[in-house]
Amino acid sequence: MYVAVKGGEAAILATHDLVAEARRGDPSVPELTTAQVREQMALACARVMNEGSLFDEDLAALALKQSQGDAIEAAFLMRAYRTTLPRFGSSEPVDTAAMAIRRRISATYKDLPGGQVLGPTYDYTHRLFDFALAADGDHAVAAPEASMPLDAAMPRVADILGAEGLMEAETPPAGDPRPFDLTRDPVEFPAERDVRLQTLARGDEGFLLGLAYSVQRGFGGNHPFAGEIRLGEVSVEFTAPELGFAVDLGDVTLTECQMVNQFQGAKDVPPQFTRGYGLVFGHCERKAMSMAIVDRSLKARHFGESANYPAQQEEFVLYHADNVEAAGFVEHLKLPHYVDFQGELELLRKIRAEQAERAATADREAAE
Question: Does 327 score more than 70 pLDDT?
Fold first, then answer.
């Protein structure tokens, strides 16, 4: 890349040492461990796992440490490593209805069947600095007050509405085909919903948040209700062909969001609620909510709605949601473009010279 730069390969290798030095920082300060990142920066790890398309909390912590906290660079590391892993097959669909709930709220029902579970959230904090955290050493964490055990049954809000026939029904496509694999095949348009959901799930959180915000502000006419947001652990199962039955591989932490939207109905469709869906790794509510809002926005044509705004146009959304690709395209401008620039520079000089010559000729003719 920069072989033409003075120093060539030696200069590039020297940057590696400088990066290591910058990453380590002041040697007198204890080095951050990946375990500390994993346990104390779990929300950052969740973002990296989502945008890196790989659920591995330890690797996400390592990626954040190695990238000095740069979430996009960390996601890039995760994706690069992911491509080296063998693929044995696809897991069985996870059952979020059987999730071991840690947090579960709804903005649609006060007395939600199964109850509201506030769980760990910053929603009710005052956003004031806790300067005690700046002190060195361990800090005691107050034990939570004893609470009633959670209800065994926590039906999803969308299922409650669906039982009354008030929610848009969702059924697998004919023949229940294997879902599209975004990590192996390029996106084609028009994109099916499984393609859209995969792209949104690993899309940049900030980009999706901005699109969701635009939809709510009038660039899409969609101001939904948070039907349900749930956080917890879900069992992942894999059916090996030689066994013929599902094997439990372990649990993963997921955040699920279902947004409830009004729909006025159509000629053959009665008025009902429609849904937007978000499912992401780890504790990542903002991403799940944004994903659900944009998912519903991308279903505009399905419901015969006009698609006039960016968040409703799947090519715009899906092509630009990937922050690793976006970062690469923007940051490639740092690479040498000497030939291109010199070509434009010479062209500009030639145009200006010709322009000056014409102006001088015009002045002479006017003087005569």
Answer: yes
Whether residues 249 and 319 share a domain: the answer is yes
Q: Which of 321, 311, 295 is closest to 217 using CA atoms? A: 311
Structural domain that includes position 299: 96-120+150-327
Q: Which residue has the higher pLDDT, 365 or 62?
A: 62
- State how far the Cα of 18 lies from the Cα of 158, in Å rounded to an integer: 53
3-class secondary-structure state, position 241: coil
Tell me: the pLDDT tens digits for 17-50?
999 999 999 999 999 999 999 999 999 999 999 9
Q: Residues 101, 50: one domain?
A: no
Contact 305, 33 (CB under 8 A): no
Round to whole Å and give the CA distance between 106 and 230. Answer: 9
pLDDT in tens, 132-185: 888 876 666 666 655 677 877 889 999 999 999 899 888 887 887 888 888 888
- Per DSSP, the three-state class of 12 is helix
> Based on the domain organization, do 46 and 109 belong to the same domain?
no
Other Cβ atoms less than 10 A from the Cβ of 284: the count is 26
Mean pLDDT of 308-323: 95
Q: Looking at the 3D structure of the chain, how many domains does it have?
A: 2
Beginning with the edge strand found earlier in the chain, give each strand of the sheet holding 246-263 in spatial order.
100-105, 225-239, 246-263, 272-281
> Is the pTM of the predicted complex or chain greater than 0.70?
yes
Six-digit token string for 57: 């909390």
Cβ neighbours, 10 Å, residue 180: 18
Task: Give the Å distances, CA to CA, from 149 to 55, 230, 232, 251, 357.
Answer: 29, 17, 15, 21, 87
Whether residues 18 and 101 fall in one domain: no
Q: Measured between alpha carbons, how far is residue 8 from residues 5, 14, 165, 342 in Å?
A: 5, 10, 68, 21
**DSSP bridge partners of 253:** 233
pLDDT at 3: 47
pLDDT of residue 268: 73
